[in-house]
Specification:
- The complex is a heterodimer of chains A (583) and B (260).
- Chain A is mainly α and 583 residues long.
- Chain A folds into 3 domains: 146 residues, no CATH class; 73 residues, no CATH class; 223 residues, no CATH class.
- Helices cover 70% and strands 2% of the residues of chain A.
- Chain A is built from 24 helices and 6 strands.
- Chain A has a two-stranded antiparallel ribbon. In chain A, strands 3-4 form a two-stranded antiparallel sheet.
- With 260 residues, chain B is of the alpha/beta class.
- Chain B has a domain of 164 residues: 3-Layer(aba) Sandwich (Rossmann fold).
- Chain B is 40% helix and 23% strand.
- Chain B has 11 helices and 10 strands.
- In chain B, strand 7, helix 7 and strand 8 form a beta-alpha-beta unit.
- The radius of gyration of chain B is 19 Å and the shape is globular.
- The chains are: A mainly alpha (583), B alpha/beta (260).
- Chains A and B meet through helix 16, helix 17, helix 18, helix 19 and helix 23 of A and helix 2, helix 3, helix 4, helix 5 and helix 6 of B.
């Protein structure tokens, strides 16, 4: 293998480097006010506050990363020796020293005029009750201990390490989602006729001590069972005959479906509301997934179809629209879908010859045009201009009023199920194959008999029709439509959730919607830091899993094709000699 | 009457005449080799026939119908399928799916068929699968066992084979192979010669191949056409063309600069 001199840093250099990074991080958080803001958030009641936990996590991570074995390419990783503990400790001690010195500085000089978050309270908290001078000592020693602990994680065997790391992560997650989970748990308990006392798990806004121990032990036990036996279970599943595997898969789907049907019963109305929004985005995502994921046409103006769906519903349904027809929904739904499809094809037609970035820019323009047209004086008499259209009555299906968030949730769920089914069928059909071929190589697809024009228009039309469904629910949900709801951010969000979930993957769209649309809502309690955290999560997800959370096989292959080829190269090098001729 | 009949084909790119008054024909069940130095216009001829370029002057008929003005997918439907000089598979689709795309022009299921999957669609899907598997099976144990692998993970020679299989799956009468031997080792080239022979003898295809590798051309061609600077400079059996002074000159580049 052609390896041009790999730069190998000495462990001490590495420790210093990561120590400095960790130091900067652990000063950054208090300086911007995150530590102070999060301090009243409990992780484990009476033991750990989120504000302190930030430094703990940073120090642990620094030790963990420094001690990680770094083999040269082609070498077996060597298990780290006891020296690793030392270097881990060194790294986090450096971080601790930096934080300590910062506390000392902040104590002697008033930094508040510049850094408004550096209050006396913060300094007191960071010195853990002692003087600022003692804080330096405490920070160094504490840092060293935590760093060594983190490095120690690398020393124990993988079979043990994974469960430990995952158990710690799960505990943190369960604790942080306390406001959400605790409410649900209470509801479930009271519905089951039990006392809704959850103090065995949650206390004071975080895990109780018993809860923490419980979660740690349970996750640890579960994960260590899975790391030792998991591969065996997977293999056993694969050996089952096709018929049984299908049944297991169907059973899992059914369980998930039942859970989703039951979900609104235990959710607060706020959460049910979020769930409805997530559902709308899943619908949009599935529609755009056909255009982008299947057919490979990068469409940045998808919001236009949300607008088309919303406005055509409003026009036909509302008595206060310019038409004032107040049509029944069984006529409105097909009308809306037809209008959206026609507009989708109309938008698709002029961009047939464009590819990639050019297509993206033009569709971006179309998305904006849709909004501008609605706002324009020309369309205002019909579409209501900036005032929008009000008075959209909700449909009644079998006597059930869909305005109620819970009922609307079920309607959206049913619609998502239908659209997901359609997408799934399409992906495994002649049409889906033609789209995929077109995405892979337009010219070759054409040479194999795929009509590029026809299939591009089909993709735009199908995507538009599905997107308009989401617009319809959007209009029903709000009871009104305004041009400001249909801005470019929606297009970007929908595209982002597809990429996040995994291009071309239906489960990916669903998971992506929950992360991208649900997560920011759940982070609301973190106030102004909400988007900072959210951004961090997104960036790290894309760095760790560039192919998305649940990638389709194709997408995974595209991003890892080098590895596949490398493997192939090695395989062939092993079997050496020329390939025998074809007969 | 010939299967493919080209008369006076001319194509200009700006001031450059890439193909100049070329007459060319292929009979049914015939293997024709097209040779010529780089830039002689060989691939351009393929691109014109398959509808990627418009023809500037001349006539093209295939199987009794004109090819002029047809789009590439329509040409494929008429029964001409091609491979590409630089291998162009659908790398992130499986081997079988690649071949199944070849069946696209012979089938009809649309959006409705895909969603409702009625008996007609199911039957058609089965037919597509069978035809694709047939095409793969032509290559013995090369492609069939790996039909569920991604095409991008195949070895170089297998990718070439899959390209041919994909072209076969279109149920064409005429295959246009653009440098099928490029990048193959001597053993594989020998195999290719046998394979192209089998394409004609077992499956009845007419084949046109562009090739630089003379032993391969010699091994398979019933007839050879030589191009240089867009013009046809020789035609005949391999022996005749190889001895033709203009062909030798074109390949060795002798005196061209002096006369020009």
């Amino acid at each position: 293998m052609a390896v041009t001199e790999v730069k190998q840093r000495s462990p001490r250099q590495l420790a210093t480097k990561f120590g400095l990074i960790a130091g900067i991080a652990s000063i950054y958080f208090p300086v911007v006010g995150i530590t102070e803001r999060f301090n009243d958030r409990t992780i484990v009641d009476g033991v750990l506050q989120l504000g302190n936990a930030i430094f703990f996590v940073i120090a642990l991570a620094a030790g963990y990363i420094v001690a990680k074995p770094r083999p040269l390419p082609g070498e077996e990783p060597e298990p780290p020796g006891p020296n690793a503990l030392l270097y881990g400790a060194l790294a986090s001690a450096i971080a601790g020293l930096m934080t300590g010195l910062f506390v000392l500085l902040a104590d002697s000089v008033n930094l508040r005029p510049v850094l408004i978050s550096v209050t006396g309270g913060l300094i007191e908290r960071l010195s853990y009750g002692g003087s600022a001078a003692s804080a330096v000592l405490i920070m160094i020693m504490g840092g060293a201990a935590l760093g060594a602990l983190g490095a120690g994680l690398q020393l124990i065997s993988t079979k043990l390490r994974r469960p430990v790391v995952i158990a710690l992560g799960t505990a943190l997650l369960i604790s942080l989602t306390e406001p959400l989970l605790n409410a649900i748990l209470r509801e479930v308990l009271s519905q089951m006729g039990l006392k809704n006392n959850t103090s065995w798990l949650y206390e004071g806004g975080g895990l109780s001590v018993t809860g923490a121990i419980l979660v740690l032990i349970l996750t640890f036990a579960g994960m260590s069972w899975w790391t030792t036996r998991g591969s065996g279970v997977k293999a056993a599943y694969k050996q089952r005959p096709e018929q049984q595997r299908k049944m297991i898969k169907g059973g899992a789907l059914l369980l998930a479906g039942l859970f989703l049907v039951y979900l609104p019963q235990i959710l607060t109305s706020f959460l049910a509301e979020i769930l409805g929004t997530v559902g709308l985005y899943i619908l949009l995502g599935l529609g755009l997934n056909i255009v982008v994921g299947y057919a490979g046409l990068l469409d940045l103006g998808y919001v236009a179809f949300l607008a088309v769906g919303g406005y055509s519903t409003a026009l036909f349904v509302s008595e206060r629209s310019s038409l004032g027809w107040a049509l029944p929904y069984w006529q409105v739904v097909p009308l809306t879908i037809i209008i959206a499809t026609v507009i989708g094809v109309m938008i698709g037609a002029p961009v047939l010859r464009l590819r990639g970035d050019y297509l993206a820019i033009v569709t971006l323009g179309f998305g904006e045009i849709a909004r501008v047209i609605v706002l324009s004086d020309w369309a205002a008499p019909t579409l209501g201009g900036a005032q929008g259209i009000l008075g959209i009555t909700a449909p009644e299906v079998f006597g059930v009023d869909l305005r109620d968030p819970q009922n609307l949730y079920y309607a959206i769920l049913a619609c998502v199920a239908i659209v997901a089914f359609i997408s799934w069928r399409l992906s495994r059909s002649r049409v889906g194959r033609a789209w995929n071929a077109m995405r892979e190589d337009e010219q070759v697809a054409e040479a194999m008999g795929v009509s590029i024009i026809g299939y591009k228009l089909l993709a735009f039309g199908t995507g538009a029709a599905l997107g308009s469904l989401s617009g319809m629910f959007f209009a029903i949900k709000l009871g009104s439509v305004f041009p400001s709801s249909f801005n470019i951010l929606v297009s970007i969000n929908v595209l982002a959730l597809i990429i996040l979930g995994g291009m071309g993957s239906i489960p990916g769209v669903i998971v992506g919607s929950f992360v991208l649309v649900g997560l920011p809502e759940l982070l609301r309690e973190f106030g102004e830091f909400r988007l900072l955290i959210f951004g961090t999560v997104l960036v790290s997800l894309m760095l760790l899993k560039p192919e998305g959370l649940i990638p389709s096989r194709r997408r995974q292959a595209e991003l890892h094709i080098e590895e596949v080829e490398e493997e192939l190269f090695e395989k062939r090098a092993d079997s050496d000699g020329p390939e025998p001729a074809v007969t | 009457m010939s299967l493919l009949e080209i008369k006076g084909m001319t194509k200009r790119f700006g001031g450059l005449t890439a193909v100049d008054q070329v007459d060319f024909h292929v009979d049914e069940g015939e293997i024709v080799g097209v040779i010529g130095p780089n830039g002689a216009g060989k691939t351009t001829v393929f691109n014109i026939v398959t509808g990627f370029y418009d023809i500037d002057e001349g006539e093209m008929t295939f199987d009794g119908g004109s090819l002029i003005g047809l789009k590439p997918n329509q040409v494929t439907k008429r029964g001409i399928a091609r491979t590409f000089q630089a291998i162009r598979l659908f790398p992130a689709m499986t081997v079988l799916e690649n071949a199944m795309v070849g069946q696209h022009c012979r089938t009809r299921a649309g959006l409705g068929g895909a969603i409702f999957k009625g008996p007609r669609t199911i039957a058609e899907e089965k037919k597509i699968r069978e035809a694709a598997r047939d095409a793969l099976a032509f290559f013995g144990k090369r492609l069939s066992p790996v039909e569920n692998e991604l095409a991008g993970s195949l070895s170089y020679a297998d990718r070439r084979r899959l390209e041919i299989a994909r072209a076969m799956a279109t149920e064409a009468k005429l295959l246009l192979l653009d440098e099928p031997a490029a990048g193959m080792n001597p053993g594989e080239k020998e195999g290719l010669v046998t394979l192209i022979g089998r394409l004609r003898d077992e499956k009845g295809y007419a084949v046109v191949l562009i090739e630089h590798d003379m032993p391969v051309v010699k091994g398979v061609s019933d007839r050879v056409t030589a191009l240089d600077y867009g013009k046809k400079i020789a035609e005949g059996t391999y022996g005749e063309v190889a001895k033709n002074p203009r062909v030798i000159e074109a390949y060795l580049g002798a005196r061209h600069e002096e006369t020009a």
